[in-house]
Amino acid sequence: MTSYLIQGAQLLGEQTADILVEDGVIRRIGPDLAAAADGARVVDAAGLVALPGLVDIHTHLREPGREDAETVETGTRAAALGGYTAVFAMANSDPVADTAGVVEQVHELGRSAGWVDVRPVGAVTVGLKGERLSEIMAMAESRAGVRMFSDDGMCVHDPVLMRRALEYVKGFDGVVAQHAQEPRLTEGAQMNEGSVSAELGLTGWPAVAEEAVIARDVLLAEHVGSRVHICHLSTRGSVDIVRWAKQRGIDVTAEATPHHLLLTDERVRSFDPVFKVNPPLRTDEDVHALREAVADGTIDVIGTDHAPHPAEDKECEWSCAANGMTGLETALSVVQLSLVDTGLLTWRDVARITSETPARIGRLATQGRPLAEGEPANITLWDPAATTVVDPARHASKGRNSPYRGMELPGAVRATFFRGHPTVLDGALNTPVPTPAA
Amino acid sequence: MRHLLSTKDLSYDAALTVLDTADQMAAVGERSVKKLPALRGRTVVNLFFEDSTRTRISFETAAKRLSADVINFSAKGSSVSKGESLKDTAQTLAAMSADAVVIRHSASGSPQQLAESGWIDAPVVNAGDGTHEHPTQALLDAMTLRQHRARTEGRESTRGLDLEGMHVVIVGDVLHSRVARSDLWLFTTLGARVTFVAPPTLLPVGIADWPCRVVFSLDEALDPAPDAVMMLRVQRERMHAAFFPTAQEYAREWGLTPERVAALDDAGATTAIMHPGPMNRGLEISSAAADSPRSTVLDQVRNGVSVRMSVLYLLLSGDDLDPTSTPHPQER
Known about the structure:
The structure holds 2 protein chains of 2 kinds.
Chain A: E1 4-11, E2 16-22, E3 25-30, E4 41-44, E5 49-52, E6 54-59, H1 72-81, E7 84-89, H2 100-113, E8 117-120, H3 136-141, E9 148-149, H4 159-168, E10 175-178, E11 191-192, H5 195-200, E12 204-205, H6 207-224, E13 228-230, H7 236-247, E14 252-256, H8 284-295, E15 301-302, H9 331-340, H10 347-361, E16 379-389, E17 408-418, E18 421-425, E19 428-429
Parallel strand pairs in A: 1-4, 1-5, 6-7, 7-8, 9-10, 10-13, 11-12, 13-14, 14-15
Antiparallel strand pairs in A: 1-2, 2-3, 5-16, 16-17, 17-18, 18-19
Chain B: H1 12-29, E1 43-48, H2 53-65, E2 69-74, H3 86-95, E3 100-105, H4 110-116, E4 124-129, H5 135-153, E5 167-171, H6 178-189, E6 193-197, E7 213-215, H7 218-221, E8 228-231, H8 247-254, H9 258-266, E9 272-274, H10 287-290, H11 297-316
Parallel strand pairs in B: 1-2, 1-3, 3-4, 5-6, 5-8, 6-7, 8-9
Helix pairs in contact in B: 1-5, 1-11, 2-11, 5-6, 5-11
């Protein structure tokens, strides 16, 4: 395996050092390793921030079933280009990832693609129907080794079923990731309920429908002594509840998406379905509450909720358009714009919320590791001084539904090292890691 | 202005231009030969994704009185029911060289999407979209209100008249009403005060940001008597979604009952009774109210044709709906 000498990178945006990558691990870190790195390929990282490879705790890869929207191959290429070395693939495929067979299929597709670690998420309930538990242990014990379970897209709204799921996954240190949406309060919901929905005449998705479920679930987690993860938290009230729960000692983690940190429901005035997403874009007040919650640690991680859709599912009336936006290839730019350039977070914090903590929540031991000698060489080199005008047509994802189309965003991925191999080099897709023996 | 999509972005001057032109169009309807050659050779498409016989025939009559050719395209079942998509329909009409598209759709925002999509390059008139807007309804309501004002003030002409100082009470299902929204924006642009009356379940969250007064009691809103009271149609199925318990309770609390009409009479009020139709007699409006001399329901229907003639004429004859000569402080 080729070795690489990353020269002059700012480790977590702090001290400058060289990183020698050999045989899939970080062999050495030091001020000037040129002499020690005979034969290594040199990667000039002057001015670049070195981060541990990003881990997306919330990705939709659409395969199996909706290969017209995305495949494991295209989605993980997009992930590599976004600086990711691992993604958790949500269960709402067709068939649903509610059996060992499906999670092993997704796991194997990810392994043979070789762009990132693909960690399948198992469905909590059969067919995401919210009626009975899927064979959770079978998925946990499968070759996919599933640790995270979610009906994402649907809420596990039955309180008894949610309680049982929280209890059941304790047996193998698993976690349930809840899509918090009270279904009756959101029937026909099209956008955030507030002054904009009132004016546009679109059925509202009230904040209380998210907050009520989060409140219930943190109390359930406390009662049964389980951990619970909250997907794509989107409102100020949700932040307050999670903050309260953490103060109380409840084992809850929370995630925010890049789009909820930047965009508001004012965008819906365009009636452009590219801005239709679930949970919906909220208000400016919510955006700022979310940013502060990331800064104070109430929100633990950034999850993209990357949700690619074919054009025909978005080129239609708002009310019949699909929910979701792409995000893998723009996430770190939005994090820089909303959290770093605003002075709320350091790059060390960014490493925590985009890599270390998501890997820990998903129990992925080889990812989210420190940039230190002997650690797996999963490294992202980020140029914070670059700017990019977003052009979805140039994305590796099949999805063209980026809400940032035409916007100028800060930063760019220059290289992504996955297990010591550059999947992205000079800002462009390189080659996947050679397939290891099964 | 190239399209008529909402009254929110209609300026004071543009609204008055439409209304003054509508007055001129009304004169055509009183002649024995009710036809102008203005739009001869032009094609107006009525693209109705939602049934509405009244609105469609009003637009059809308006276009025909201007000598336009009219195509009625009833596209029930858009992409909602896996039929042809809005995009394909629009491109089909573009290929047939439609000169204007009048669109009615159950999905809020569809007319704006059509106008901004680049799928078709013709003026778009919103004939009612979901629970968003119904601008020609608001224009015909404003036309009716200023006729009422001219009548009560003894004016000979309505030309250039706005609604300054008028008080209009709008009663009923504001939450689901595109008429209520379009009326509010237009009436306030023209200087009127608006009060909404409804059970709290039928008012949108976020209404506090609107330029209106909100009260829950119809009797409170009618004392002192306003210049006009507009009764919105209430759909009976709303009660199954628990917006109100029974039709009887709704009629008692928020219906324009014979007793409430009598109270207006006793007070010597000049209050006009308006309704966008079709009426649910016995629910939001009693027969005593609908058939009283105060009722302007048929004036509204008549004015609907004039207003739609005006809009089609102004959009298709190329005259600017936004005259820049006399800027008004209320213009955006």
